[in-house]
Design goal:
16 helices, Leucine-rich Repeat Variant, 2 domains
């Protein structure tokens, strides 16, 4: 372990709060059989983790990837913040290396907050002007987290008014069995609708009757009440 990694871990351990850690263990479903089974928390708020990452902004990619392998959730989140920051300021070659490193370590990006704070800003941005085939492969993965990476990465595209892959992946993931995926797909549809409501409604009109209820509720959350109820009651 490098001296820098040791220093980051020592800094984080000093910031930990056992009471907050206990709450996080429950909130992120770390019990046996739950989606976050076995994840460990030390109890640090996200803004403090972001600030910690800023303090170690020059951490090399190899050290960030090593930190990403930690069993402690907050260590992994700081590692991802470091990677996102390096990606933003990196050359095309550096960005490609970060993207490859990210996809090679998805087993450690294993909770919804870890995916959501990183996938759009590394995978989404990297693939914006490239083939998106990798996202469609991830959408068919047995890993819940790789499937979530696939759809959440499209947030970057959506913010740039590019909806094609978000809609295609939403179709692929329409019958996913995981509630976390229902929420993720519904969220991306809602974000798409903020920018192009007719595009979202065209998709919903075709699929709302077969969507999981949670996915539909997330997708129509910002609709006027009468329109929202029409979707929920199947009277569109």
């Amino acid at each position: 372990m490098s001296a820098r990694m040791e220093e980051i871990k020592k800094t984080l351990r000093k910031m930990g709060d056992p009471e907050r850690a206990g709450h996080a263990q429950r909130y992120f479903k770390t019990g046996k059989g739950e989606y976050g089974e076995g994840d460990r928390f030390i109890g640090i708020r996200v803004p403090a983790l972001r600030q910690c990452a800023k303090s170690y902004a020059e951490t090399p990619l190899k050290d960030a990837l090593q930190l990403l392998k930690s069993p402690v959730h907050e260590d992994r989140m700081v590692a991802l913040f470091l990677m996102v920051a390096r990606f933003k300021r990196g050359s095309e070659q550096e960005r490609a290396a970060i993207y490859r490193g990210y996809l090679a370590h998805t087993r450690y990006i294993n909770n919804w907050d870890l995916v959501d704070c990183s996938a759009p800003y590394i995978v989404g941005e990297h693939l914006f002007d490239k083939s998106r085939n990798q996202l469609h492969k991830l959408a068919r993965s047995e890993s819940l987290w790789e499937r979530r990476i696939s759809i959440i990465s499209t947030f970057y595209f959506i913010r740039h008014d590019d909806f094609t892959d978000a809609l295609a992946l939403a179709r692929t993931l329409l019958h996913d069995k995981e509630d976390l995926m229902h929420k993720a797909v519904g969220w991306m549809l809602r974000e798409l609708g903020k920018r192009n409501r007719p595009e979202e409604e065209q998709f919903l009109t075709m699929y709302y009757n077969e969507m999981p209820r949670t996915m539909l509720r997330y997708a129509i959350e910002k609709f006027p009440e009468r329109r929202r109820k029409a979707y929920l009651h199947g009277t569109i």
